[in-house]
Design goal:
Layout (H helix, E strand, L loop, with lengths): L1 H6 L3 E2 L3 E4 L2 E4 L1 E2 L8 E4 L6 E6 L9 H10 L22 E6 L3 H13 L20 E6 L6 E2 L4 E2 L1 H8 L7 E5 L23 H13 L3 E6 L10 H15 L3 E4 L7 H4 L1 H4 L4 E4 L6 H6 L3 E4 L13 E2 H5 L5 E4 L6 H13 L2 E4 L2 E2 L2 E2 L4 H16 L1 H4 L15 E7 L3 E8 L5 E9 L5 E6 L6 E4 L3 E8 L4 E7 L1
Parallel strand pairs: 4-16, 8-11, 8-18, 11-12, 12-13, 13-14, 15-17, 17-18
Antiparallel strand pairs: 1-5, 2-3, 5-6, 6-7, 9-10, 19-20, 21-22, 22-27, 23-26, 24-27, 25-26
């Protein structure tokens, strides 16, 4: 049964699109929820979603194996060991979603069901809402020439803030001063603050200047510096004293994707204090407790090609801000970072001094980031609302499209992943005579609306390897 579904011409694996008759993967996800694969009829109106529900423990989770089979080699080669008994054995659990409104509706049904299992109240606490508008985060390498004046032994925080306006203004700063110095001797990450020109007073002065400019301030935590005779409770106490002494706003969890209980208790004493992790959380408890993270491309040693594709996590949990970063990217890869952020409606990490290696953004790239931030601020409720759908159906080959929506407005992000200019119909939505359509980002071109009794089709031109954003108001 499942093998026959897999071979059907209208069968689409999760995170894929139809580019003509060919299915192409155009997304990434790295968390323990798996969107359903979808089968549609020839009209594409009726859709059936098939989910192999993830469950714990994973070592006996046949559904996880089924998901991997559907994503890689196919069901013909999938094998599962079964211990036969006289009782029925629960080997595979399939959940079906049905829709008469196409495959876009199937994703929404799955998302509603998935989110219903999560306790997301922490994201909506009044004193923590500032983290949702942390669009631009500057990675400040303390001892690089961007941030430190060696002749005067002074941090150039005002210079950092001033230059940040070229990007649209930083919303937060991560002050990174321990690595790569940490580990040369027995000095731990907290003791290294004594090496600053004015000890803890250096941090306090920088924090004060940041707050005067409406910029939040993070310091990092290195879990790999927890010594064998130390506990996380001890480090939590260090952090608590540090907050009292310097008035910092957040803690950046280096290499981590979860929030330790010891740190979680800190937020009870300091309700507005926030945590941001380097790695996107994967499991339910992590997602419930850790309310912001990076969307990082590449690793600590080398660059990876930055693909403009949909980040599925961002659409399932839009209240969890992701800041896109690819530390070693240069040239056109930096262009792709900006395009990927615009396509997914996310913020960025501005990291130019990578531990002494100067990899700056160009003037044009700064202008694009400034324009993107302005749009994210203006249309925040649309981008970060809960009604958005990734990889909606398109009307032309060679493009992918995300839909962001609230009650009466939508923003469509469209990416031309080909090497040729595409001119023609891009996407459609339900007919409405009273609409306003405007391009708000990307190389401008004229927009034509073609109306039928049931649909409005949006037609325009997109250059190769470009992203545009179109705003629709009812």
């Amino acid at each position: 049964f499942v093998t026959n579904l897999y071979k059907h011409k209208n069968f689409l694996k999760a995170g894929h699109i139809f580019n003509g008759k060919k299915a192409v993967k155009k997304s990434t996800w790295n968390f323990h929820e798996y969107p359903p694969s979808i089968l549609t009829d020839n009209s594409r109106n009726f859709a059936l979603g098939i989910e192999f529900f993830d469950q714990f423990p994973w070592q006996s989770n046949y559904n996880l194996g089924m998901h991997e089979a559907i994503s890689k080699e196919g069901f013909e080669k999938y094998e599962a060991e079964v211990q036969l008994t006289e009782e029925l054995s629960d080997v595979v659990v399939m959940r079906f979603y049905t829709s008469s409104e196409g495959r876009n509706k199937v994703f929404n049904l799955w998302k509603e069901n998935t989110r219903s299992r999560y306790d997301l109240r922490k994201y909506f606490r009044p004193k923590n809402r500032w983290i949702k508008k942390n669009y631009l985060q500057h990675f400040t390498f303390a001892y690089g020439k961007e941030a430190f004046e060696y002749k005067k032994t002074k941090f150039k925080i005002n210079k950092i803030i001033k230059e940040g306006k070229e990007f649209g203004g930083y919303d937060s700063i991560i002050f990174w001063h321990q690595y790569p110095r940490l580990g040369l001797d027995n000095t731990n990450q907290w003791e290294l603050y004594r090496y600053l020109p004015e000890d803890y007073k250096s941090i306090k002065k920088i924090v004060k200047e940041c707050h005067l400019n409406n910029i939040k301030f993070f310091i990092p935590f290195k879990p790999w510096d927890v010594r064998s005779n130390e506990s996380l409770d001890k480090h939590a106490k260090f952090l608590e004293n540090f907050i009292i002494e310097t008035n910092i706003d957040g803690f950046f969890l280096d290499t981590m994707s979860s929030l330790p209980e010891s740190f979680l208790r800190i937020q009870k004493k300091f309700p507005s204090f926030e945590f941001c992790s380097e790695v996107t959380p994967k499991e339910q408890r992590q997602i419930e407790q850790l309310t912001s993270s990076w969307d990082q491309i590449g690793d600590i040693r080398r660059n990876y090609k930055v693909e403009v594709e949909t980040n599925m996590f961002r659409f399932v949990f839009p209240e969890h801000p992701l800041n896109l970063v690819s530390r070693w990217s240069v040239g056109s890869d930096k262009d792709s970072i900006i395009k990927r952020a615009a396509f997914n409606g996310t913020g960025l990490v501005i990291w130019q001094d990578v531990f002494g290696c100067w990899l700056p953004f160009s003037k044009k790239q700064k202008q694009l980031i400034k324009q993107l931030k302005k749009i994210l601020v203006k249309f925040h409720d649309i981008f970060f609302g809960n009604n958005s759908i990734p990889l909606i159906e398109t009307l032309s080959k060679g493009i992918i499209c995300n839909q962001f929506a609230n009650d009466n407005q939508r923003i469509y992000s469209i990416y031309n992943f080909t090497s040729k200019k595409i001119k023609g119909p891009l996407f459609s939505f339900e007919y409405n005579a009273d609409i306003k359509v405007q391009q708000i980002y990307g190389k401008m071109s004229s927009i034509i609306i073609k109306q039928t009794k049931k649909l409005n089709s949006v037609c325009s031109t997109i250059d190769p390897n470009e992203v545009i954003l179109i705003h629709v108001k009812y």
